UniProtKB/TrEMBL annotation:
InterPro entries: Arsenical-R_ArsD (IPR010712). It comes from the Bacteria. This is Arsenic resistance operon repressor. It holds the Pfam family ArsD. One of its GO terms (biological process) is negative regulation of DNA-templated transcription. Coiled coil: none annotated. One of its GO terms (molecular function) is DNA binding.
Length: 120
């Protein structure tokens, strides 16, 4: 099973989807993560402000931060290897890393499109 780990910069809450001015990129990414989990992929997400030890105790992440600093975040690991840094991945990238078919990616989000509803 694929494990995707997301090491977020310091955010106000675990997803960054909070506060007065919500970043649409974070809203989209949170929905994509939820969709990915519904497809059976394990996703772990760490926030630098709330879980600094997760960053310090992971040698890959620690080395990345020593080289790039916090400005290089977010950092995405797939099965422990760096897959992406500096931006959040698109749903198609997440699906590819998880081995999910292109059809599943192009379908409506899982929370709004149910089999037999006519939208899929």
């Amino acid at each position: 099973m694929t494990t995707i780990q997301v090491f977020d910069p310091a955010l106000c809450c675990s997803t960054g989807v909070c506060g007065v001015e919500v970043d649409q990129q974070l809203v989209t990414f949170a929905a994509d993560i939820k969709w990915l989990e519904q497809q059976g992929t394990k996703v772990e997400r760490f926030n630098l402000a709330q879980q600094p030890l997760a960053f310090a105790e992971n040698p890959v992440v620690k080395g990345f931060l020593e080289r790039s600093g916090q400005e290089g975040l977010p950092l995405i690991l797939v099965n422990g290897d760096v897959a992406l840094a500096g931006r959040y991945p698109r749903r198609a990238e997440l699906a590819r890393w998880a081995g999910i078919s292109q059809f599943a990616v192009s379908a409506q989000p899982a929370n709004t499109c149910k089999p037999g509803s006519g939208c899929c």
